[in-house]
Amino acid sequence: MTPVELSRTVLRAVRCAVEGGELSVSVPERAVVTEPGPGGCGDYATTIALQLARPAGQSPLRVAEILRPRLIGADGIRDVVITGPGFLNISLDAQADPVTGLVREIRDRGAEYGHGDALAGQVVALRVPYEVRAEVVADAVVRIVATQGARGTVEHGDPVNLRLVPSPEDPAPLGPDAAQWALLHPAPHDRPRITADHLVQRESNPLFRVRYAHARIRSLSRNAARLGFTAEPGPVRIGTSGDARPDGTARSGPVRAGTDTDAHSDGGTPTGTRNFRHPDAATPATIPHDLHPLHPLLTPLSDHPRILAAAATHRAPDRLARHLVTVADAVLPLLTCVLPCGEEKPSVAHRARLALAEAAGTVLAGGLSLLGIDAPEHL
């Protein structure tokens, strides 16, 4: 069960409670599920009871008690525990692996993962001034609203309905990709920075991190093919055979033959980056906590449809740009443990980690395309 599927399950429980006369509320459009906070337990938690308490005229704890038995009876849910004022902490069945389900969904939908019908049938008419940032943002908005079933149009003149702080200067000297990012990444009320910072190959440059993460993932796929295996969705864990040392650091060892080092032009680590190691590097790297089921990458990947819908609804490509940075930062630490080390043979675990990495690459490539930026195979 993916977080998206779990959110739908929570909403079905609310709908059943309303239809059964136990709650008198309007069923919300979505239910947020996140990692349990301090004092929580299980795989996921939701604040839906707190959200519905006031309109229902009942305490959050009572709303949680109404929803709990309906959630426990749902497929894929093993247990539900109420904590605090009314947090619902949900434990999934062992078979309902969220990594596998999410990766399969992304693989099945490909570049259309995250597309929906939030704006189905609508015509989004944008009126912008003759100004470079406004035109670039409007162009991206047209692509983004199309992912939600709308058709966008752009006209110039008054009254303007897409208001942005204009660019202080012509961004063209930065080149097409960096110029797009410089204009799209800031929030509408922030003044764009038209500086060479967008060109540096360093960790401090968000655009570099996003494009570098995609290039590394593509390199992993090529190297896996040379080693004779491909991606296959499955449970992903750290600390099992072939994954990492018990202390959470990646195992070091000789690099397998037949790998390429084209994730960066010089075949090594970009200057100034602390955690950006080539996917085949034999040096230890810190690995996140247990990847199943709450690895930091899972939340932004499952959140992608919501972010894309919000970017379309609010005409805000900056939300998508910042989301891509979150995905890149979450996937980069995983990449050091995807391929086998030394004479280790490719296993089911390697295939599953590669599938998770490729799912992140799909989201990165799709998001960059919507922003009008190239997703490089090599960097």
Automatic annotation (TrEMBL):
This is arginine--tRNA ligase. One of its GO terms (cellular component) is cytoplasm. It catalyses: tRNA(Arg) + L-arginine + ATP = L-arginyl-tRNA(Arg) + AMP + diphosphate. GO terms for biological process: arginyl-tRNA aminoacylation. PANTHER family: ARGININE--TRNA LIGASE, CYTOPLASMIC, ARGINYL-TRNA SYNTHETASE. SMART domains: Arg_tRNA_synt_N, DALR_1. SUPFAM superfamilies: Anticodon-binding domain of a subclass of class I aminoacyl-tRNA synthetases, Arginyl-tRNA synthetase (ArgRS), N-terminal 'additional' domain. It is an enzyme of class 6 (ligase). Coiled coil: none annotated. Its EC number is 6.1.1.19. Residues 4-92 form the Arginyl tRNA synthetase N-terminal domain. Residues 210-379 form the DALR anticodon binding domain. One of its GO terms (molecular function) is ATP binding. It comes from Streptomyces yokosukanensis. The keyword Acetylation does not apply. The keyword Nucleotide-binding applies. InterPro entries: Arg-tRNA-ligase, Arg-tRNA-synth_N, Arg-tRNA-synth_N_sf, DALR_anticod-bd, tRNAsynth_Ia_anticodon-bd. Residues 231-276 are annotated as: Disordered. Keywords: ATP-binding, Ligase, Nucleotide-binding.
